[in-house]
Amino acid sequence: MRIFAFNVKRSYKFFFALLLVIVSVILAAFFLPVEDAISVFSTERDLPIYCVDRSDKKVAITFDCAWGAEDIPHILDVLKRENVKATFFIVGQWAEKNPDAVKSIAGQGHDIGNHSYSHLRMGALDSKKIIQEISLSGKKLSEISGKNIELFRAPYGDYNNNVVGLARNLGYFTIQWDVDSL
Asked: Hey, is 8 helix, strand or coil?
C-alpha cells in the first residue's frame, strides 16, 4: 500500500499559479486586438463550391462519368426532351474509352467537368500526382470535346486544402455536390 503525502502550501501555490494563467489567457482573449492574437490551431479550410445562392428557383444537375457508358444516351434524351442542361464530370480514362459519348455530351451543350484521370482518392496523393491527374484529364477532355474545361470534382468527394489549391492553380473551380442522389 502506498501513501501519498503532499504539501498543502505547495498545492495552494500551484493552483493559484494555474488560476492566474487561466485568468490571464481569458483576459488576453477579450482585450487584445484581433490582429495581435496568435492562433495555435489553423482552422482555415480551402473548400470547393457546394452551392450558389440564387434569388430564383434553379438547381444544377451534375453527373459523374467514371464507369459504364450505356446509360448516357438515355440521360441525354431525357435532358433534351425536358430542355435541361447539366454538367458531366468525366474521368479521363473514361473519356478515352467513350469519346463518342463525350462528343455527344458536349455537342448537346452540356458542361464538361474534370473528374481526374484515374478516379483516385485525391486527398491521399502527393502534389505531383494530383497535378498529373488533373492536368492529363483536362487535356484529354479538351481534345475530345473541343471545350475549355474549367470545373473539377474530386473523385469520391475526397479533397483537402492541397487538392482545392492545386486545382485552382491549374485554372479550375472545384465543385462538390450539395445533395447526393445516391
From this structure: helix
Strands (E), the chain: 62-65, 87-90, 111-114, 151-152, 173-174
The domains of the chain, with CATH numbers, are 62-174 (3.20.20.370)
Nearby residues of 66 by Cβ (< 8 Å), 6 or more positions away: 90, 91, 94, 115, 119, 155
Sign of CA dihedral 100, 101, 102, 105: positive
Q: What is the pLDDT of residue 76?
A: 97
User: What's the chain's length in residues?
Assistant: 182
Asked if residue 36 has pLDDT above 50, the reply is: no
The kind and range of the H/E element at 137 are helix 127-145
For the sheet with 173-174, list strands across it: 62-65, 87-90, 111-114, 151-152, 173-174
Whether residue 92 contacts residue 120, with contact meaning beta carbons closer than 8 Å, is answered with: no
User: Which of 106, 130, 110 shows the shortest CA–CA distance to 118?
Assistant: 130
Per-residue pLDDT tens over the stretch 144-168: 999 999 999 999 999 999 999 999 9
Cell 431525357 belongs to which residue?
78
